[in-house]
Design goal:
The protein has a single domain, classed as TIM Barrel. Helix content is 28%, strand content 21%. Strands 1, 2, 3, 6, 7, 8, 9, 10 and 11 form a 9-stranded mixed sheet that branches. The structure holds SN-glycerol-3-phosphate and calcium ion (CA).
Length: 249
Amino acid sequence: MKIWAHRGCCYTWPENTLQSFEAASKLPVTGIELDIQLTKDRKMVVIHDEKVDRTTNGKGWVKDFTLEEIKALKIETHPVNGEKQYTQVPTIEEVFTLLKPVCLSKGLLINIELKTSEVRYEGIEDMIVALVKEWGLDKYIVYSSFNPDSIVLIKQKYPYVNAGILYDSEKLCLEFSQKYPVNALHPYVEMLDVPDIREKTDLPIRVWNEEEIFYPGKEPCKHYDFEALEKLGVTDIFTNIADYYCSGK
Ligand code: G3P
Ligand code: CA
């Protein structure tokens, strides 16, 4: 099973932060997954929700904050000597600065999920492909989105990019892949609803889940049975506990 650190090592560090990505970059993972959105001044920031409320001390939509404003928000992380510590919402450039050396030296992949379903962020596909090219990272990036329009657009305009389609249902992923030239299926682990999938596609099947918990990881996290998943044709998993799986326990 290939392991992808979902939003970084987001059981032991706050999700989608430089700290969670740095922890993941030190593991023998296949890749790191992250989510991008656009600020009011059209800067690409790495954050999962369309609103900042859950993960920062702010309130409101990402699209209504300038980069400077979103950078002023605090994300609480591990205390040091009993004192609270904070980090920030990273830009995608900050993440590339951190991870590019690991991509080049170890072949680390980055899955960039375009969060374009709730807010469309027109043009984000062109912006991220151009930036990836500028950074020389093309061959290390896998794009994905729950918005099929984003995947159709990115593959039509940039056929050379590697893109996976995200749906809950594996059947919907498969049907999409039969109509459009995607490079992977990204279904929900609880909706592997195509019997004998391996008779129908050779594409990688990378599962995501909603069952694992997030930082501060105080309760035990669900552990998946990789052998059982592999029997169902799964090749890769996005997991919050890449650090646990890589520890060989
Ligand atoms: O790409 C896999 C996974 O990240 C999709 O769900 O909600 O964690 O972005 P979510
Ligand atoms: Ca995601």
